[in-house]
Every structure is written in C-alpha cells, then in structure tokens.
Design brief:
Two copies of one chain form a homodimer.
Chain A: H1 9-12, E1 16-19, E2 22-27, E3 32-33, E4 36-37, H2 39-52, E5 58-66, E6 73-84, E7 89-97, E8 100-110, E9 120-121, E10 136-137, E11 155-158, E12 175-181, H3 190-196, E13 215-222, E14 231-241, E15 244-252, E16 258-267
Helix pairs in contact in A: 2-3
C-alpha cells in the first residue's frame, strides 16, 4: 500500500474492546496534519465508543476539550454512561496515550429519525451553489510546505471563490466553502460527521496564513442522518481577539439538508 | 426579606469547600423558572468551582451536558483538573443532588487580558441600538401563567421590537434582543457570563409559545472581561427539526465589546 492509499474511515476508527467501556485504538499516521491527528478524527473515535455502549444509536451533541495532541499510534478510549434515559443518554468519553489524557468529551446520544423534515429555520447561511466538480481538491502539502497527509485520505474540495488563501490572496472574509468525501466514498453517519465539522483548514487562512491553529474546544450537533454522497461544508471565523478565534461550521448533505453544525474555540497568532 | 428581594449572584453561587475539589452549594429557589434552577446558573456554579482551584483565573470555554434538573436546595459540586498548562488548563466539573448527577461540564481556563482589542471580526450580528430604558422588563410570571421567579432577581429587559411573543404575536424570526443586569447591579465577570448566555427566554418563543424548552447541551465562550454595567444580549434560534432546536446567544458589554457567546441544543415540541 503506498503512502497515499486511502484507508477507510471505519478502519482508522476501529475499536478493540479491552474491558467494558475500555477500548484500544490506533491513530493513523495518515489522518494527520503536520504529523498530528486531526481533532475531529479524535472526537469521532470518542463518539464511536459512546454509541458502541448501546444507549442510543446516534450522537446528537458532543463537546470536546483538547488537553494535549497525541501522536499517531496506540491510544486507549474509555467511555462511561453518566445517565441512560428514555429519549436521550449522556456519556463521558476520554482518550489517553501512554497513560496521559489527550482529549475528553461529553456526548449526548439519541435517535435521529431518517424521515424528519426541518420544521423551521432562520439565519442559517446558504449552502452555496458551487458544483462539486468545479471545486479544487486540496493537496497533501499546504502553501507553507507543511505535510497534510489527511488530504490524501479524504477528498476535500474548496470552492474556487474562497480559494484565494492557497495562492497567498486571502479574501479577508474568513470563510471557506467546499465539499468533503470520505475515502472510497464511504457514506457519512453521525460519527463521521463529528470529523466533518473539523475537517476544513482554519477559516482564518482566508484572513491570513498562519501556522497551526490548535482547537481548544469543539462542540458538534448532529441534526439529521445524511444522505449518501459528499457533504457541503461552510466554515467561517467570527471573532479573532486575544490570540483566540471562534469558528462555526455548517455541514449539509447532498440533498441540501443541514446535517451537522460545529463551533470551536482555537488558539491563533494573528495581529 | 420578601419573596422578591433580590439575592446577589455572588450569594446564590457561594461554595463551601468540603474537601479539596469538593464543594457544597445551595441552589436558590428564586433563581428558578417554573421552580427549576436556570441551566446557566448551574453552569456558572461549576465555572466558579473550576476557577477556585487556582489553575487560571478566567473561564474561557465551558461545555455542559444536562442530565437531570435538580430541585432548589443543597447540591455538591466536584471539580478535577484534567491538565494544568502554562497558558490554559482544562477541568471537569459536575453537580450532584442526593447522590444523583445533574450536570457535568468540561471547562477551559486561561487569562483574559483586560486591555486587548479585537483584531478581526466578520459575520457577527449587530448588537442593536435599542436603549436600555426603552426595553421592557420581563415580569416573574410568563404569558402562560408560569412563575419565572428569577425575573424578580435579574433585570431582563427585551427590546420592544422583539417583544411580540409576550402579547401572543411572535414575529416568526426566532430572535430576541435586550439587556441583562445582575441583582444590585453586580458587575458581570467570566463566571456570571456563563449564566448570561442562558438567561433569556427561549428564542423559539418568537416562533411559537411552548412549554419548557430544556437545554441538553450548552457551550459558552468568554471572549473578554466585561465593563461594569448591563450587558446587551441577542438570542436567536437557527434550526428546529426533530423536536430539537439550536440557539446561539451573543453578549456585549455596555462598551459594545462582544464578551461572550453561547450555543445550545434544546428539546422542544413544535410542529
């Protein structure tokens, strides 16, 4: 298998049960950015562990606080039911490497109805109209020469209208639009949507190119079961202040339904 | 003291240390909505316990998952440092009543610089221009006759332009604007801002009046130290689907600086 051969998401999120609520996992060295596993990938592993406990089948809300970035390789994932309810359950999940905690999350699970129609919305951004085939695939080396191995795994395409950052001409709007597909076109589910809300480059690249923008906190809501196919993503920054930025992310399935939302607080050196 | 006498926020969030990281608190029966303590008030208690551990002085991010609603009265609050870092620390805090967990939160603490100027923002809603004195104070009984005791404690004023719900004429925009003050004009701080992001009535009241809209998950980011005085609040719903709604909340100090943001997922019976 060449370095760039895609490994399915279901493979890089495999969990081996060691004891009730305790799992072993292997963080893939290919699902990395500058050698570090993507934060949404880590949250998806915690979400997968949570739904494996059979409280309810779908993650509907997950909030992660990132303690330290693990290296690719073996980790343990623990998950504990805080309350098992009729319509929703809450769980705590955490990942450790070499006995050191890396990320902890609180997760609410429930049942998402495949047939539900949205009742009301207002103020959501437009998903955009750019076609998948016109969007530009992000390569696995960024404009600053940093290896982004994960881009050989997923297919992340950016709408040309928001691609200025890649040629050193950020628009200043702090907004990226595009598409995301898992390797081998594996359909998204509520667990992989936890990755999708953190998959895009920092929206701040459309303000100014910087080094790594490490996530401190990431909250994801999964709002519907996605139709198969690539998802549309809008990722935008809101406020940069005191070397922190908050970013919001919206994910629509290819039928145009909002399926996930993310909000994160990240550290950044700007200004 | 009459039933309506305001009790300071610092009093209703008093913590008595029982052991390292373990505190007793009394949930006030006046900081309630239909007899149940407000969810942001509970998160503020967890945040206060977190900063009392002296890792860093300010909560900058807090994510709570609500397990069951406690009654007014005694609770215990536990807090544990997950990682104490140089620039930020992460903690886990939880509240229990009669030995049953009620709410658990992950909290990141750091230092907010009083003098920092925002570097960049885009897409933030406007704070609005409605004057404090023209906004209408919300009474402690809602239009459906439900007692909202907390409204005799805080001063929550709604801009007349978004007050249609109170007379049975919601605008359909799912948006409320107004002002919030703590009892006796106590200045806000990062801990009480955790309450502020959940203080307003459900933004869905501006779509359709319903019963209680219980919060499942609440994430708050504190972005700056607030100037003394009332804060401006914009609280809006985004998507109602499958009997869940997500709401976002923006809080500005009276100098016009965005000091806190909240996002929540709540259960609702609409449609």
């Amino acid at each position: 298998m060449s370095a760039a051969s895609p490994i399915p998401f279901s493979t890089v999120t495999e969990l081996t049960e060691l004891a009730p609520g305790c799992f072993a996992a292997q963080l893939s060295d290919r699902w990395t950015i500058a050698g570090k596993p993507n934060g949404g990938y880590l949250l998806a592993l915690l979400g997968k562990a949570a739904v494996s406990l059979d409280t309810h089948p779908h993650v509907i809300a997950a909030s992660a606080h990132y303690l330290r970035s693990p290296e690719p390789g073996p980790v343990t994932v623990n998950v504990e039911v805080l309350r098992g309810g009729r319509s929703a359950s809450q769980l705590r999940a955490w990942m450790a490497q070499d006995g050191r905690p890396c990320v902890e999350a609180l997760i609410t699970t429930s049942v998402l109805d495949a047939d539900v129609e949205p009742y009301w919305d207002c103020g959501l951004p437009e998903p955009g109209t750019g076609a998948h085939e016109h969007a530009v695939r992000i390569p696995s080396v960024n404009p600053m020469g940093t290896p982004i191995a994960i881009m050989d795994q997923v297919e992340l395409r950016i709408d040309p209208a928001t691609l200025g950052f890649a040629s050193g001409r950020p628009s200043g709007a702090g907004l990226l639009r595009g598409w995301l597909s898992l390797p081998a076109a594996e359909p998204f589910d509520p667990v992989s949507l936890l990755y999708a809300v953190d998959a895009f480059p920092p929206a701040t690249f459309d303000i100014e190119l910087t080094g790594w923008v490490p996530t401190l906190e990431l909250t994801a809501y999964v709002r519907a079961l996605p139709a198969p196919g690539p998802v549309r993503v809008l990722h935008r920054a809101q406020l940069v202040s005191g070397q922190l930025v908050d970013e919001t992310c919206y994910v629509w399935d290819c039928a145009g339904r909002l399926v996930a939302q993310g909000t994160q607080l990240a550290a950044i050196r700007l200004g």
